Amino acid sequence: GAEGSTLTSYFSKHQIQALKPKLTFSTLRDLPCPVLGSNELEGKAEEVCGAEELFEWLGAVSNQVTLDNKSSSFLSTYCCPEPSTIVEKAFLCTITGFIIPEKIIQILEQLCCYFSEPKLAYWLTLTVHGFADSPVSWRESEHGFHKGGENLYNFVIFRNLDYWLQMAVGTNDDCPP
Fold first, then answer.
1. Which of 5, 87, 97, 138 has its CA 20 to 30 A from that of 31?
2. Between β-strands 123-129 and 151-158, what pairing exists: parallel, antiparallel or unpaired?
3. How many domains does the chain have?
């Protein structure tokens, strides 16, 4: 009808088109990395780090904050939680765009295949961020922006295919299901 042709005309006139997700890759060398145990969610002093410590560490790594706790740093004096190990080479891939849940499941399944061969990693993570100003969050509820617009979940998958699921939402949002 007339409405459809008006929309088509509007989109073609303003050259609005679907954007392909943007991929960025980086290799992190000699990365201080927390030691984890799949059955130790809370961590264990001097043996393994817990989920909260890992979550904080992931934020620092994904924002490329140095982890060496130098007092001369104006950005951060954060350091990797203990116990830790040095990972010679870690791979960071970021996909930015509108990604449907089926694609996220597909990415997760492909990541799990990594443990088959070669068996180099003990664990890996997949973090999914909603846009900070997204209109909806969990359970189809309105998403409150307020301070930071937190709206994300993170899978930590271990070599034995145990996993942790971490979720974060803003203070006025509905809790995840």
1. 97
2. antiparallel
3. 2
